[in-house]
Amino acid sequence: MDLSNVEQSPKMTLLANYQVPRYLVDEALLHFDLDKSKTRVISTLKMRLNPESSAGECVLDGESLDLISIKLDGKLLSDSEYEVNSKSLTIAEVPEQFELEIITEIHPDQNTALEGLYHSGRLLCTQCEAEGFRRITYYPDRPDVMTVFTVTIVADAKQWPVMLSNGNLEEQGQFNDGRHWVRWHDPHPKPSYLFALVAGDLYCQQDHFRTMNGRDVTLRIYVDPENKHKCDHALVSLKQSMKWDEEVYGREYDLDVFMIVAVNDFNMGAMENKGLNIFNAACVLATPETATDDDFYTIQSIVAHEYFHNWSGNRVTCRDWFQLSLKEGFTVMRDQSFSADLNSAAVQRIDDVNGLRSMQFAEDAGPMAHPVRPDSYIEISNFYTVTIYEKGAEVVRMIKTLVGDEGFRKGTDLYFDRHDGQAVTTDDFVKAIEDANSVDLSQFKRWYEQAGTPELSVKTHYDPVQQRFSLILRQSCPATPGQENKLNFHIPVAVGLLDSDGNNMPMQLAEEVTPYDGDTRVLSLTETEQTFEFIHVSEEPVASVLRGFSAPVKLKYDLTNKQLAFLMGRDTDSFNRWDAGQQLMINVLLEIVDDIQKQNTLALSPLLLSQLEAVLNDEQLDPALVAKMLTLPTENYLAAQMPVADVDGIHQAREFAKRQIAISLKPLFNARYESLSKQKKYQFNAEDMAARSLKNLCLSYLAATDDPLQMQRCLRQMKVTDNMTELLAGLRLMVDQAGPEREHALRAFYEQWKHDRQVVDKWLSVQAVSKLPDTLLRVKALMKHEAFNIKNPNNVRALIGQFCRNNPVHFHAKDGSGYRFLAEQILVLDKLNPQVAARMLGALNSWRRYDLERQELMKASLEQIATQKDLSADVYEIVTKYLAA
Questions:
Q1: Are the CB atoms for 245 and 311 separated by under 8 Å?
Q2: Distance of alpha carbon 865 from its chain centroid, rounded?
Q3: 319-449 topology per CATH
């Protein structure tokens, strides 16, 4: 396709073109007269010339605003004294210090993009990150303009009884006409993206937290009244987060009140607005009857993430959006550590790496590959990516690995103290770590600058006479868009050596005098190739490389299936034990795919079966780890391991392997299931979650035996359980079985839970990922169901997103129906909510990895989108990059 024929070409923003803001805003006084159809905003800005800039015209960002009037130092400006267009307001001449009053009107009920101020059910609420504040009033809407905000809200007291904004409540009162008002003041300077406002008829659940210095902080969660019984877990998680941040990072909360509001229509998971976090309702509401273990776990993590932003994102924020990972990568790493400390550290690490490999590695290998600190963007919303968040977290984790826990704490203390109240860069973060530890991380910073997933190749050599073991490490990184040649990374490689009994062996390097005292040591790979020689090694070891996944790399280590089985059974590092099992499964499954392609008789490796049997029999192992070790790699991940993804072959191979494992180990699965089925009241804790995860995994294998009695077992579990975790596990298995029992189970589930939006999304999702051949037809029918609204991002993600991302055998149907369906939905969504539309496009990120017939069908769908008139910048940027790759 000739992309020059595409009419629109939105402006590219470059990091190299960064300039400091010309004018700063010391204080912003905002007055809102709220109404869902027409809200009037009076903005009074106390501005001054930035001493680092030079005088000139004053340009303020603004979109979808009705401008009523402008006053400069009290003087009403005429039309000739300013210029306004669809993106900005420009005043040609202003003094070095001045006060600007701007009156605008906005229309929340028409705002389907869900940016700025919008209407959602019984609420008016805001979403200002990244560039939503410009939809509220004219303002220098960029993160490096730090301002003290005071906000007055006026509204009808009956319709909007609760009115919230950032900071502390200063005053409130009533008018005689049925309206009331409140004034909020945030003493901490912040950028406009952290501004928040919420108004509505809300229930408030309140608690308190005493900080390490004895201050009492009021905690409040606001929800729709019908959800008032779903707040307890979020409040507990919040208090756990506050305590953990004090103990681990020495960070104390700094306002009198901390508030969370649950919103049904939200583009993101949650938003860390200073003192007033706004959450997608799905990420805050939970009871055992309506939320799964994964939901409870996710809520705990997200509540922590947004709270931790109070320091890593709010008190110290990013200078520009290229530095987004400064706050997001660092905070993801913090919330992952929090979850690991409160739950199972091994399972947390496995989940983190699984997500990284499945999504971020694919992003790095595709046309949207970009560095953790990008060089350019067209639409910043497209860079809220797994690279910025999850790979950014891995980069911070590597820094911690290199300087140690104590050194990292010293570095972060210096970072927070040095930059409190500032908007800074990733370089500033690394510099603080360097200065606190007297280390040089200049080569390490390439992790921020270079895209792509490095490949780490491992070779070994053992000299029995000298008792020397050589570990030869080599690094490379494939070309990515705009970066053909890569410089060497600084890669921390955590290594252990195991003897034939699985015991850790000495790891003294040849150049060392003092023996190394530890089971794992971190080697620094900084050259293209380096050899590390270990001495006094009494027998040839098996090297356990990249323990704990110490760097986000692809490991090329040619271990035999027998060696992988050994590590799966004996490695003392839990992550590497799981990882060896996963690699063994991948090898076996790809061999079956090859046999399918050659039309050979299919058989499952006895070696894999014996290892799985040993894991299942090991009652000393954490049941959560057992469940992870018994879970087959996903079809999407298997596809990424093939030069050309064989969609149907992978699906057939995985189904065959699962059935053979299920039949061979049926007595063991049955015994473990029954032993874990003792009825007890639901609790959210690591031990009980582990038991439920293994129980449900056993049930999924038993269902794969095609024994009709197992469907009755699923139904029985659904009827007797007291929690959504086990109920949904049964329903997922029922949905893959055609017949009246399936339809009855789905109808009964919906009738029971149709009043609960979060549970209905689960009902939509389980149908979207069904293996049955009519799944796409069912998805289309569900789009016409009363439960689905295409304007609701959660509905879209639950149904369309799940089908396109997590049902590969049907999304990649040979007739191209899945691709055409996605293209049609993206064009509809682009008119309603460009952010959601752009994110749906991610299902086509790896389109060139498939066979030529599928490539042509995917390309046709991409071209259909690209040639659409008036395409949003969000979708335009992604689709043109996909086609140009």
A1: yes
A2: 26
A3: Neutral Protease; domain 2 (1.10.390)
Phi first, then psi: give them for residue 521, nearest 5 degrees: -130, 155
Flag residues of the chain having pLDDT under 50: 1-7
Nearest Cα neighbor of 144 from 266, 350, 324, 5 is: 324
Residue that has been written with the tokens 């923003």 in this structure: 13
Question: Distance between CA atoms of 408 and 441, rounded to whole angstroms?
Answer: 13
754-885 shares the fold of 19-106+127-190: no
For the chain, what are the domain ranges? 19-106+127-190, 319-449, 455-551, 754-885
Phi, psi of 822 (to 5 degrees): -65, -45
Omega prior to 130 cis, within 30 of 0: yes
Fold of the 754-885 domain: Zincin-like fold (1.25.50)
CATH topology of domain 19-106+127-190: Immunoglobulin-like (2.60.40)
Number of H helices, E strands in the chain: 29, 32
Calculate the CA 274 to chain-centre distance.
Answer: 20
The token duo for 545 is 């490389």
- Name the percent of the chain in helix, strand, coil, to the closest 5: 45, 20, 35
Q: Which residues are catalytic?
A: 306
Using CA atoms in the order 118, 124, 126, 132, what is the torsion angle rounded to 10 degrees?
A: 20
Residue 303: strand, helix, or coil: helix
The domain 455-551: what is its CATH number? 2.60.40.1840
pLDDT score recorded for residue 1: 45
HSE toward the beta carbon, residue 435, CA cutoff 13 A: 12
- Which residues are within 8 A (CB) of 654 and not within 5 positions of it... i.e. 6 or more apart? 589, 632, 635, 638
Place of tokens 């009871």: 287
User: What is the per-residue pLDDT across 152-180, written as a single tens digit (0 to 9) for each?
Assistant: 999 999 999 999 999 999 999 999 999 99
What phi-psi label fits residue 399: left (phi over 0), alpha (psi between -120 and 50 degrees) or beta?
alpha
Q: Is the pTM of this model over 0.85?
A: yes
How does 77-116 read in b/e, with b if 16+ C-beta sit within 10 Å?
A: eeeeebebeeeebebeebeeebebbbbbebbbeebbbbbb
Question: Can you give the pLDDT at residue 8?
Answer: 57
CA nearest neighbour of 821 among 780, 880, 859: 780
> Given this model, what pLDDT does residue 384 score?
97
Residues 748, 718: Cα–Cα separation, whole Å: 11
Which tens digit of pLDDT belongs to each residue from 403-460?
Answer: 999 999 999 999 999 999 999 999 999 999 999 999 999 999 999 999 999 999 999 9
Identify the CA nearest to 410 among candidates 387, 371, 384, 438: 438
For the record, the structure tokens of 655 come out as: 């189904």
Please tell me whether residue 266 adopts helix, strand or coil conformation: coil
